[in-house]
Amino acid sequence: MAITDATKLRTLNENLFPGAPLTTEDLAQLGISAVLASHYVHAGWLSRLGRGVYAKPGVDLALNPSLVLLQRKIEGLHVGGKSALDWYGVRHYVPQQPRIHLYGWSAARLPTWFTERFSVAYHRKRLFQETPDQLLFVTPFEKRDGDPNVSEPERAVLELLSEVGSRQTLQEARELLEDTHTLRADVLRDLLKRCTSVKTVRLCLQLGNELSLPWARKLNPDELPKGSSRDWVTRTREGVLVLKA
Predict the structure, then answer these.
(1) Is 147 exposed, middle or buried (0-12, 13-18, 19+ CB in 10 A)?
(2) Mapping DSSP to helix (H, G, I), strand (E, B) and coil, where does residue 164 land?
(3) pTM for the complete prediction?
(4) How many CA atoms lie within 13 A of 184 on its CB side?
(5) Beta carbons of 237 and 170 less than 8 angstroms apart
(6) CB neighbours (10 Å) of residue 162?
(7) Contact indicator for 236, 174 with CB cutoff of 8 Å
(8) Are 65 and 76 in contact (CB under 8 A)?
């Protein structure tokens, strides 16, 4: 039994990466039962973060592997909107503790072990005609294996614009779009054609043209779902927002 326990402890140490959380299911695949995991916690070889979640003791939790774990639990979870743009270097200013904007397919509550360590906002958003297992232009950050899923810049822009009028100011959205000269017009076109928000489509076209952005000149508004021929009007904290048809 002692040899077996020593072997399992060695296996645990080989798979317990600093800052990366493990679930009960992960431990079971290593041959470590819930009872043995509890023993390791009491012995100081494991730290329990929450129900069924563990990590290496004495090490701060890392964001990226934590997000990867949450992706297994929350359908369609990915870093999006303003946070995704920030990850790709599109930012207006850098707050001391930027809030991480996460998007998912369904309503979900992020676990306490995560929200206690990271400033985060979760958005249930179905902005495009897609399925949660095949999100459009959502890939591991910079295509690196093992990194969390992140909206590519074109999708992130539309996620940002979809929040204008509620959680996002128009002024900041405009300032961020000023730095999007390199957006791929073909990708943006594909996303806009599948966008379910008339407001987002119109706002993208309107700001793109107002800011004379290169990608805006390559989009044909007649090909995109802009809704009726009437203007789209709503009141925001910044005043009345009018989007032309």
Answers:
(1) middle
(2) strand
(3) 0.90
(4) 10
(5) no
(6) 25
(7) no
(8) no
pLDDT tens per residue across all 245 residues of the chain: 343 477 888 888 888 899 999 999 999 999 999 999 999 999 999 999 999 999 999 999 999 999 999 999 999 999 999 999 999 999 877 666 789 999 999 999 999 999 999 999 999 999 999 999 999 999 999 888 889 999 999 999 999 999 998 888 889 999 999 999 999 999 999 999 999 999 999 999 999 999 999 999 999 999 999 877 777 667 667 666 777 76
Task: Quote the strand ranges of 13-63, DSSP E.
Answer: 22-23, 47-50, 53-55
Token pair for 237: 């904290």
Token reading at 125: 């958003």
- Please name each of the domains of the chain with its CATH number: 2-55 (1.10.10), 63-243 (no CATH)
- The number of residues making up the chain comes to 245
